[in-house]
Structures are given as C-alpha cells and as structure tokens.
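I am still getting used to backbone structure tokens and would like to learn alongside you. Would you supply a protein for us yourself, any chain you care to pick? Start from the sequence, derive the backbone structure tokens from it, and show both lines together. Go ahead whenever you are ready, and we will take it from there.
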Amino acid sequence: MKNTSFARLALKVAVFYFTVAGVCQTVQAQSEIRFRLVRDTLIVASMTADNQGPFDFILDTGADTTIVDSTLAAKLSLVPLGQVQQTTVAGVQTIGLSTLPSLAAGYAHVENLRVLVRDLAEVRKMDSHIVGIAGQDFLSHFNYLIDYWKHTVRIEAGSEIQDTIGGEPVTMEPSGNRMIIPSEAQGAGHASLRLLVDSGANSLLLVGAAPQALNLPLQGHGVENTSTGQATLQLARVHELTVGSAELHDIPVAVSANGPKQIGDGLLPTVLFQAIYVNNQQHFLVFNPHGKRK
C-alpha cells in the first residue's frame, strides 16, 4: 500500500511538474515576439489588427501615435474621424485620424486605439510588406526587453525580466507618449542632452542648439529616411555618448538646425545597443542590461 501510494504521489508530482513547465513555456512563447530588421534598423513584427492578420508592423518607440497604412484602413473598414498635423524632421503633414478596435502582438493587446491613417509609400520602399507602425501609444502599455542579438521583444507579464537583469536604471521624463532620457555627450565641447529613445532611427540625430554646444565639425551631408520622406542633414561625429552605464564612442551623427521640440535635443537609436529593457510602469530604462549575479 505504501509503495502504491508513493507511486501515485510521484505520478501526481510528475504530472504537476510537467503541467507547470508547459504553462511556463506557453507564457514564455506568448510573451516573446520575434522580429526581423529592415535596413539593419527597423524592428518589424507580425501583429493582428481588429482580430485580423497577421500584418507586418514596425515597432517604433520614437512614434508617439500608431500609424495604419491607408490600404489596411480600407481593408479593416476604419471610420475616418477627421485630420491632424504630424511633425517630423522631414516636415509637417496633414493626415487622417481613426480608431482601431484592437491591436495585438502575442498577448500584448490594446483596444480602441486612436490611430493615424496615411499612405506609407516611403516605408514600403524599404519593405513592401509593412502596413503599419505601432507607436508609443501601444508600446507604453507594457514593460519589455528589446534583444537585438536574439531578434526578440519580450513582453513582461509581472516583474520576471526586471528580477533577473542588472544595470543602471535611466529615468525617462514624463512627456506624453515619448521616452526622453538624459545623456552626456562629448565632442570638441561637452553637453548634457535630452534624447528621445527611437527604435525607428538609423543614426544619432541632434537638433537645435545641441550641435553648437558640442562644437561638432561638420563632415558633409547625408539623407535620413523617415516614414514621411527623406530629410537632407549635415553629418558629424560624437567622440563619446554616455547613457546610464553604457558608453558609446566615435558615433556618426546627423545634424539638423530644425526639429520638432517634442524630441528634445535629438533622437537616440535603440540599434546602438545590444539590448534595452523598458519599464513603462516605473518610468525607467536599462541600456545593455546584464544578468544579475547570484
């Protein structure tokens, strides 16, 4: 009897263990969004819109509002709600406004999302499959880890990511749907900068008085691709950029005398780092986090 009872108990424990393991694996799979890089910069992932899809969306921390291509808006029968103006380094555009009933990637799900509707022809020149840009109005609902080595974005269900990583937290400013963080930059001069963390940017961008404060010698002209078109910018290099405990050296930088005030002193591309942990609940980021020592 004792042996039989023990065998039954062992069987129950084994079943329980494998059930828990299965649940953990399922949660892990649901929380992990695989992405591909377009032009070595843009994070493109499969998402569902209004329970349809999957559709290819750019995950863009630098966009404060989600954008839906006009062809997808027509397919989803989105109702026009008027027009708004959008400002980028490429200029100002008047574009349509609507509401998307739902947008989801894995179990990251947001309902009744106000979206911009316009032709993403410039984006489709880079990848014809892209039909939307998921901005901070979507992403700010979640804590997540962008891992460029694994090509994954892992959505945090509780605190399981935060509990296992180390690194210096960098506080983000409360600035609507924008992640603006402090940094220190060194050129011929030195400056404390406020930079918008942007997963859609392909190079460090400095605007306004920041280039003059750093006394950057200009090295020619280049073109910055944006979702609204191309912007011709001057080029330079920053000797050192410090963000939290992460240090970057000899970085190419695009310089513009003009730029929307909402981006602070410029754009900080996330692709400059191996990984970034974003905690929207507690308003901080960790650049190049490492595993905690036991």
In short: The helical segments are 2-31, 70-75, 121-124, 136-139, 210-214.
